[in-house]
Design goal:
alpha+beta, four-stranded antiparallel β-sheet, globular
Length: 417
């Protein structure tokens, strides 16, 4: 008997999921434990396994589309089984959420040509070849798909110079992509008109939606204030050089030193290692440091747990491993939970100083800038030194100025000694 497979809730904050890829197609046999699809949540892209045997009779959410948690993802059953009544019943209003795969043979709608840029290349070309021609050759005009005409205009390509490979010599997308200027246009494609306005749009990913929601809630819900301190990095630079010479081939970075020093400073200043819980404040004895990692779609924060008890070499290995997972969308929700304090470091991008938005449920986040070579005063003399600025963003409901300042003084002492 056919059974509905629903969109799973793969994280505690997930409200909808996007199907990144189907591993099975309609008509395929599915065994319990087989990976049905990859689903993008607000935190990561995760494999979704089937919990039952059967034949995939229906796909309810196409690749690239989003659907709420508990909506119809697929239907599994016996080969040839009629599932129309099941889909109608599941829809709740007598109309199936989507028709069975066997009936999805309609001509593509106008908007499917625009959406095709997010589908596979094969599907794009199939859509183009079914789209109506721009015009016929009988009146001297050029036959081209709407997408091909749009691409040619953007690239400054004269359609008169393009040979069409579609039906009846019609120009399609691949002809524009593979176009090479002929001798009569050796000077290159015509320049776009001066002052022409251009833009592109893309759907907001689940990750970007989650980032926007969480940081908006943090920025507008928590009263932020900021404390900035400049740190002499001469001893830290010398220490790093000596440590790396001693532990070759392993290496530690300045970021590893910052994480270790911040974790140690939090043990000395537990009020900065805290969370606002509405009717109470939680002071954490353990130190779990979140480390912001930039990915294509935004920002992920893997967590280094018990960072105060780990040597810098171990911190280095863990940060590198989880940063790699984050960039490959393999970071699991459990690896991004439990943070009690967060560090955001933009020093590698040459940023000298910035402020960061608190990462809930933390009460503080520390923004770390680059190391700057500049004149400094030492023992009454102006000499060349190296300094680094850090800015602590604090939730004033939990952390007062004196608490934040005490944490930074301890952090400064550890970094400079």
């Amino acid at each position: 008997m056919a059974e509905i497979v629903r969109m799973p809730k793969l994280s505690d904050t997930m409200e909808e999921g996007v199907v990144a890829e189907w591993h099975k197609k309609v008509g395929d046999e599915v065994k319990s434990g087989d990976v049905l699809a990859e689903i993008e949540t607000d935190k990561a892209t995760m494999e979704f396994e089937s919990f039952q045997d059967g034949v995939l009779l229906h796909i309810g959410v196409e690749t690239g589309d989003a659907a709420p948690v508990d909506s119809i993802l697929a239907v599994l059953g016996e080969k040839g089984e009629d599932i129309e009544a099941l889909l109608k019943e599941a829809s709740g209003n007598g109309t199936a959420e989507s028709k069975p795969e066997a009936s999805k043979k309609e001509e593509p709608k106008e908007e499917s040509i625009e959406d095709s840029e997010e589908k596979s290349e094969e599907k794009e070309e199939a859509v183009e070849e079914k789209a109506p021609a721009a015009s016929s050759n009988s009146d001297g005009r050029i036959k081209a798909s709407p997408l091909a005409k749009s691409m040619a205009e953007e690239k400054g390509i004269d359609l008169n110079d393009v040979n069409g490979s579609g039906d009846g010599g019609r120009i399609v997308k691949r002809d524009i992509e593979e176009y090479k200027p002929s001798s009569k246009s050796a000077a290159g494609p015509a320049a776009a008109p001066s002052g022409q306005e251009n833009f592109s749009e893309e759907k907001v990913s689940q990750m970007r939606k989650a980032i926007a929601r969480r940081l908006s809630e943090s920025k507008f819900g928590a009263p932020h204030f900021y404390l900035t301190m400049e740190i002499d990095m001469e001893n830290a630079m010398a220490s790093r050089k000596a440590i790396n010479a001693a532990i070759e081939p392993a290496k530690i970075s300045f970021n590893d030193m910052v994480i270790k020093a911040a974790a140690a400073a939090l043990k000395k200043n537990p009020k900065a290692n805290s969370s606002w819980l509405g009717d109470k404040i939680r002071y954490n004895d353990h130190v779990h440091v979140g480390v912001a990692v930039a990915v294509d779609e935004g920002l992920l924060v893997p967590v280094i747990k018990f960072a105060d008890s780990k040597p810098m070499a171990a911190i280095n290995e863990e940060v590198k491993e989880m940063a790699g997972k984050a960039r490959n969308k393999k970071l699991q929700p459990s690896e991004m939970e439990g943070n009690t304090f967060t560090i955001s470091n933009l020093g590698m991008f040459g940023i000298e100083e910035f402020t960061a938005i608190i990462n809930p449920p933390d009460a503080c986040i520390m923004a770390v800038g680059t190391i700057v070579e500049k004149p400094v005063v030492k023992n009454g003399q102006i000499v060349i030194g190296h300094t680094m600025k850090v800015t602590l963003s604090c939730d004033h409901r939990v952390v007062d100025g004196a608490v934040g300042s005490a944490f930074l003084q301890t952090f400064k002492k550890y970094m400079e000694n």
